[in-house]
């Protein structure tokens, strides 16, 4: 699957996504479930915040929670075989310098040059094909996956 495919386009056009599940169905297989999220306008200004400082309350009084609502899509990514994957808490993973990396996509990225690929080229071997580096940039986690083949992607209910 390439980043111009229908599912990749749907994911990249989402406002936000959350990682909901990560598991290995069998050895060296990887399944990720991500769910689209939006600013929930129906709850704008209605978020209870007990014990909040008045200064913070004033800043957030008209805010809307970012959450999955009815109509948001859920995607399943499945790699039949992966070489490596890394799950990073979003705040920690968003603080580095990545200007020298090259990728296509927004929330679902395919890299042609990355620090993750550089690390794997130094520390792994015996791949029959070049590794592809995918990153899924969720609100709660960043997920990097290196595999010889692209994932299967489907919409799940």
How would you explain this protein's 3D organization?
- The structure is a single chain.
- This protein is an alpha+beta fold and 157 residues long.
- It has one domain.
- Helix content is 18%, strand content 38%.
- Strands 1, 2, 3, 4 and 10 form a 5-stranded antiparallel sheet that branches. A 5-stranded antiparallel sheet has the order 5-9-8-7-6.
- Strand 1 (16-23) and strand 2 form a beta hairpin.
- The longest helix has 9 residues, at 115-123.
The number of E-state strands comes to 10
How far the N terminus sits from the C terminus, by CA atoms, comes to: 21 Å
User: Which regions have little confidence, pLDDT < 50, spanning 5+ residues?
Assistant: none
H/E element sequence: HEEHEEEHEEHEEE
In round numbers, the mean pLDDT is: 89
Give the DSSP E fraction (strand runs of 2 or more residues). 35-45%
Main structural class: alpha+beta
**Biggest sheet features:** 5 strands, antiparallel
- Radius of gyration, whole Å: 18 Å
Helix content: 10-25%
Overall shape: it is globular
Integer tally of domains: 1
Number of helices: 4
